[in-house]
Automatic annotation (TrEMBL):
UniProt family annotation: Belongs to the UPF0166 family.
SUPFAM superfamilies referenced in this protein's UniProt entry, alphabetically: GlnB-like
InterPro entries: N-reg_PII-like_a/b (IPR011322), N-reg_PII/ATP_PRibTrfase_C (IPR015867), UPF0166 (IPR003793)
Name listed for the protein in its UniProt record: Uncharacterized protein
Source taxon at top rank: Bacteria
Protein source organism: Rhodopseudomonas faecalis
Amino acid sequence: MDLPKEAVLLRIYIGEDDRFEGTPLHEAIVLKARELHLAGATVLRGPVGYGKSSRLHTAKILRLSQDLPLVIEIVDSEQAINGFLPELNVMMNGSSGLVTLEKVQVIQYGKAE
């Protein structure tokens, strides 16, 4: 699969405790992206963060089980990302996450041949 040089970065901010149909939301999003053949997805776990509620989520030793922030990044063509957004909307229903889009320039994707 080749990515166009001009692509889109979909960034999804959620909490570790967010769920979709009993599955961790971040896993559901990654599996759906894979099912729809998006170029790739990465989940990043944040040691500290806050969102709309301004409630601080941290990985400090006394608060290890807190709802830590997660960021899911998916880069693909604008058309592919736009096709994924309705699916994401269904999965995000009930979550207080944040979803952003930005144009990116792809320098390298996969192994150079």
